[in-house]
Design brief:
single chain, alpha+beta, BirA Bifunctional Protein, domain 2, 37% helix, elongated
RNA sequence: GUGGGCGUGGCCAAGUGGUUAAGGCGCCAGGUUGUGGCCCUGGAGAUCGAGGGUUCAAAUCCCUUCGCCCACCCCA
């Protein structure tokens, strides 16, 4: 038997109401904040991701779904949400519209990893991007949106961590400091960190290895070494967060996985969750648009994993089930009643009443059971008598009573019951 | 990529060498001649993940393989 590829899922929405709830909540919230939806292609030029995410990152090193198409071009399944939006921004000349521009997306993201709880090869992200806004109030807006999402979903005990990783100029000075700090201890570090030391020293900070953690927590802090503009941006952001009553923890070791981030980075994690816990993460990326060939344009945004949000809803047993549509099921007695049944059901649908026709060849009893299994509130029964008199027998499944009325009186019955 | 756990009908699950592989849920049918939910009765559905080996005999022991889950790495 052919099975679905590892790390993918078949979403049976009838069995999991959380998904639709999360999607619609996210979209509604984005719209409330003035964001409009963008859908980018499922695959892009491999180059787009390689150049923006950074070739020393794990995503580029080993997690991308890259393939050659028949034209010989290298394509990659969307590995991340921000770069494609920025590419589209440039491709459609959106920088010529009035800025800032607010965009949101809901789309699948693909990474070749070993699946585990909260981690899949195909997962889905809700994300927002605020392009062309430089001030720290933009950072605060995006974080506030994220915060509202968590609240709207009813998730509790979610912590917000923030940090600043400066801009290229002050960061390069900081990295020198960091290297000096680590100089004497390199040999005691884990193998990954030895590698990080030469390839991407900033990543030394978020090593989870016990020994490395101790060393990392004593390292000089980026926020103590910001340049003037970055420092001012950082302080204002913290002030704005305070004024809108958003609680946060400063995490000096928060650095994030993509190379394009500048200044603000942030993550939302459930309390006590493991390393797969992050439900939302993002940051500022002021150099990204320029790097893609546009004129310097600041940007900030976040991505949030729908699967992880749903996982947390399930864990907390939060009930998100909306009211199921009240189905009307039309039963019929024998094939000769089918045409009339079809007439009735077409009428129901024309009145926007959700309805299904029970299958022919089954006893009324079986059709009744089927209706009950669909949790129909109303059942319409049609037999020879009803056909001949152009009547319908309407049964209230909750009360258990029924009456036979004229077909043309059906609207009134349904409106008043 | 590394480490651990697990694979028995659609789902849950007993069974740890010996005749036709329990049970529950669900499904189908009957008990009601045109009527559900409760109850009763009956039925369908499993080459015990796959392949090989040991044995008179394997779901059960051994090997291989595939798949799922969990953890590490990293990320949403």
């Amino acid at each position: 038997m052919i099975q679905r590829p590892r790390g993918t899922s078949d979403f049976l929405h009838m069995d999991n109401p959380h998904w639709a709830f999360v999607e619609s909540s996210a979209a509604a919230l984005a719209q409330l904040y003035g964001y409009s939806r963008i859908d980018t292609p499922t695959f892009e030029s491999a180059d787009l991701f390689v150049r923006t995410i950074g070739d020393s990152t794990d995503i580029v090193q080993k997690e991308m779904y890259t393939f050659e198409d028949k034209g010989g071009g290298l394509l990659t399944l969307r590995a991340e949400g921000t770069a494609p939006v920025c590419r589209a921004f440039l491709e459609h000349g959106l920088h010529n519209r009035s800025l800032p521009l607010r965009l949101y997306y809901l789309c699948p993201v693909f990474r070749y990893e070993r699946p585990q709880s909260g981690r899949y090869r195909e997962h889905h992200q809700f994300g927002v991007e605020l392009l062309g806004a430089e001030g720290p109030e933009a950072d605060a807006e995006v974080i506030a949106l994220a915060c509202d999402l968590v609240k709207k979903l009813g998730l509790e005990d979610i912590e917000l961590f923030v940090n600043s990783i400066g801009d290229p100029s002050c960061r390069s000075e900081y990295l020198i400091l960091l290297s000096e700090y680590y100089q004497g201890t390199i040999n005691t570090l884990c193998n990954d960190c030895k590698d990080r030391f030469t390839r991407n020293p900033l990543r030394l900070l978020d090593c989870k290895n016990e020994h490395c953690s101790v060393i990392a927590s004593g390292a000089p802090k980026m926020v103590d070494n910001l340049c003037g503009p970055c420092e001012s941006h950082w302080q204002k952001l913290l002030m704005y967060l305070n004024t809108v009553n958003i609680a946060y923890d400063i995490d000096h070791r928060l650095v994030r996985g993509m190379d394009y981030y500048t200044r603000t980075v942030f993550e939302f994690k459930p309390k006590g969750s493991g390393s797969q816990g992050t439900i939302l993460g993002g940051g500022r990326y002021d150099g990204l648009i320029e790097q893609l060939g546009g004129k310097p344009t600041p940007g900030i945004g976040f991505g949030s994993g729908l699967e992880r949000l749903v996982l947390n809803l399930e864990k907390k047993q939060i009930n998100t089930a909306g009211r199921a549509p009240e189905l009307v099921v039309v039963l019929h007695h024998g094939d000769e009643c089918v045409p009339y049944a079809m007439e009735v059901i077409n009428h129901l649908r024309s009145k926007e009443i959700p309805s299904v026709l029970a299958s022919s060849g089954k006893s009324i009893k079986a059709q009744m059971r089927y209706a009950a299994s669909l949790q129909a509130k109303t059942v319409i029964i049609l037999g020879e008598d009803e056909v001949n008199s152009r009547c319908v027998t309407v049964k209230d499944m909750l009360e258990g009573n029924q009456e036979t009325i004229k077909f043309e009186d059906l609207n009134n019955y349904l409106n008043t019951s």
